[in-house]
Amino acid sequence: MEAINEVLSGIFMPVLLMGAGILFAVRLRFFYLLHPVRFFRTLAQAHKGGGVSPFRALSQALAGTLGVGNMAGVATAIVAGGPGAIFWMWISALCAMSVKYAEVRMAVEHRRTGPQGYYGGAMYYIRDIFGKKLPRVGAVAGGGFAVLCIANSLMTGNIVQMYAAASVFPWLSPLVLGGVIGALAFVIACGGAGRVSEVTMGLIPFLSGVYILISAAIILRNGDRLPAVLQEIVAGGLSLRAAVGGTAGFAVNRAIRFGVTRGIFSNEAGCGTSPTAHAAANTKSAHHQGCFGIFEVFADTIVLCSMTAFVILLSDGTKLGMDGIPLTIYAYTSLAGRGAGIFIGISVILFAFATVICQTQYGTVAIGYFTKKKGPQRVYLVLSTLCTVFGTVIAEGVMWQAADLIISLMTALNVLCLFWCVKREGILQVPSGARRNKRSIKKDP
Q1: Each residue of 193-217: b (16+ CB within 10 Å) or e?
Q2: Contact 233, 84 (CB under 8 A)
Q3: C-alpha distances in angstroms, 41 versus 34, 38, 272, 316, 331?
């Protein structure tokens, strides 16, 4: 797995994700950057009324990304790739915004209607994209992505989350914690997408708000040291010495690899999982919900991941050989007191819980892609509960390698299918009103 990840994450994935991001952003004429007022107005006017609101769908999507990715993922990226990994997190996030827009928009355009409302995801639009001209390829690609989505929900969305949660408080039995969260997640997941979105809507905005306030207070208190931290991030990510090779070149290669892969792990842009949540939204148009996808990447990586990175780099935790959640908790404790560290620890557990139930819902939708029978879904829910317990005691190295491999494969398949869709169907036309120059502007359906 490590050898495969060296190729996928070190060379292929950065080129693919950034290339797709630049291409899609050009086709969209960077409307979300050049017209921020209209962009946020679109967010405010997205709800069609009734059903799952776009903001509720966003909260569920954020539940699948926030927390462990922002805390353990950022810490691991810094330890493995150096401060420069954060620079590449920013670059990949800026490129991934347009990719997230594309996959969310495609999920809404190709979603289905069921007894409980809308449902859909990447596996459905992948099958539809190829099904028009290459039906056999569409069936294989859609089914393959659904299998990867199930595997990802068990590994990245479950085992990785529980490993991080179990490392918060040494005095808390990992197996007991895994059993309690697994049982609660099982009950909530059995209630369907509606119950999952209700729980995430109650948890995510509150936890994110308090986390931002604590992080902002620490950064402002140490504002005089922030320029040095920023210089360290930029110099570690891109420098003339790094470009000419040697040890510095190797360091930058690792910074790019871990910055991009942990960025994907954090905001899920391109890997095709969060469109499952966005597809359920009762939104005015696919364009409106696609804008929520852009905001999801911004809130997750540009805001929360950056705050976590600044706090970690302002502390001396990286010099003590720490990694993952312990490093993050140490950084907040050393800079804001024991109370802040305890809150971060509790937040990790609650974020992990929210991610588990959200990713379990994604896995259930992927199971439904193959069959609507209740038996396979129940077997999957039992397996997910067992993974919740198993995740508290798994070996860390195997866990991260498996998670990176699954995410890289999902992202490669999903983004390549989006490339095909752009070429064949001409999607991502400029939304109506996104520019004042109305020549050659096609209205959004």
Answers
A1: beebbebbbebbeebbeebeebbee
A2: yes
A3: 14, 5, 26, 42, 37
Q: Which residue has the tokens 């069959």?
A: 371
DSSP state of 9: I
Could you report the per-residue pLDDT of 226-240, keeping only the tens digit for each?
999 888 888 877 754
Q: What is the pLDDT of residues 277-330, one digit of tens each?
A: 888 888 888 888 888 888 888 888 888 888 988 999 998 888 887 877 888 889
H or E element, residue 119 = strand 117-119
Contacts of 111 (CB under 8 A, 6+ apart): 118, 119, 120, 124, 279, 280
pTM > 0.70: yes or no: yes
Q: How far apart are CA 309 and CA 233, in angstroms?
A: 10
User: In DSSP terms, which residues pair with 283 in a beta bridge?
Assistant: 47
* Secondary structure (3-state) at 52: strand
Instruction: List Cβ neighbours of 36 (8 Å cut-off, separation of 6 or more).
Output: none
Output b/e per residue, 182-191; b: 16+ Cβ within 10 A: bebbbebbee
Exposure class string for 425-437: b at 16+ Cβ within 10 A, else e: eebbbbbeebbee
| 433 backbone φψ class: left, alpha, beta (φ>0; ψ -120 to 50) | left
Q: Specify the 3-state DSSP secondary structure of 361.
A: helix
Amino acid at the residue 344: I
Measure the CA–CA gap between 433 and 110, rounded to whole angstroms: 24
Q: What is the pLDDT of residues 377-434, one digit of tens each?
A: 889 988 888 888 887 777 667 777 888 888 888 888 898 888 877 766 555 655 554 4
User: Token digits for 299?
Assistant: 């809130």
Q: Which residues, in sequence order, are bridge partners of residue 62?
A: none
Longest dimension (CA), the chain: 65
Virtual torsion, Cα 382, 387, 388, 393, nearest 10 deg? 150
* Burial label, 374 (beta-carbon count in 10 A; 0-12, 13-18, 19+): exposed
**What SS3 string covers 240-299?**
HHHHCCHHHHHHHHHHHHHHHHHHHHHHCCCCCCCHHHHCCECECCHHHHHHHHHHHHHH
